[in-house]
Amino acid sequence: MVRPHLPLNALRAFEASARHLSFTKAAIELCVTQAAISHQVKALEERLEQRLFRRLPRGLALTDEGLALLPTLQDSFDRMASLLERLGEGKAREVLSLGVVSSFASGWLIPRLGMLQQVHPHLDVRLFTNNNRVDIAAEGLDFAIRYGDGAWHATDAIQLLRAPLAPLCAPSIARRLAAPHDLLRENLLRSYRQDEWAHWFAQAGVTGPAARGPVFDSSLAMVTAAEQGLGIALAPPSMFGRQLGQGSIEQPFDLEISLGGYWLTWLKSRPMGSAMTAFREWIVAECG
Known about the structure:
The chain is built from eleven helices and eleven strands. The protein is an alpha/beta fold. It folds into three domains: 81 residues, Winged helix-like DNA-binding domain superfamily/Winged helix DNA-binding domain (Arc Repressor Mutant, subunit A, Orthogonal Bundle); 97 residues, Periplasmic binding protein-like II (D-Maltodextrin-Binding Protein, domain 2, 3-Layer(aba) Sandwich), CATH 3.40.190; 81 residues, D-Maltodextrin-Binding Protein, domain 2 (3-Layer(aba) Sandwich), CATH 3.40.190. It has a five-stranded mixed beta sheet. α1 packs across α3, α1 packs across α4 and α2 crosses α3. The chain is elongated, with a radius of gyration of 28 Å.
């Protein structure tokens, strides 16, 4: 396809004039004469067959066509400047947008971002945490890391880690828990997945209580509440190693249940570019 010649000097002259609403100030910025700026803008208007400015006694005003063109030009110039800066550093950097369930982000990914940067210094990671509810397409994400069974509509998925659940609580509460049935006297913190405690009690051979206690949309928030002594969380200990190591929470029982895991997911329709391929290979190897 033959692409039309873009009058870059004229476009730059228009963008600077539109920002300043002055040919004179645009000329000073671009180190040319005011007459050159006026000529370039006029040539652009003739090419587009549209007036971009209204010439006023004191300065300029953008027409509707000029107002429509300006933001697109500014974004394009910003993108070109950014890319040229990256190329000047020796290698073009690539942006990778990740939507990550908050427990995995805090408990696994963030402590390893420095390692990722060392292995793939050209990747600029954009990290967006969520409560496990994410729309990859609508949010413009390359990948989403989420908890579940790996079955999400229109996505491919690779399991990264199993994530068995176990009771976690503050040390003051752990001291009064000798057996699973002791939990029946405690405040049980719950996620939006309502059946998790029922599964754990069934595995422990205990008839569980009726559902009660606060409900959280994030296991990270739930464990934070447990740290403060507000109750007992049922969460993956593997994601809270720092808190367990510091002693701010304890795991009173070894019994764990597996109801899902953490998965790397992406749209089936999304082409796998070099940045996505590099990240996928890295995280699969690290989790392997």
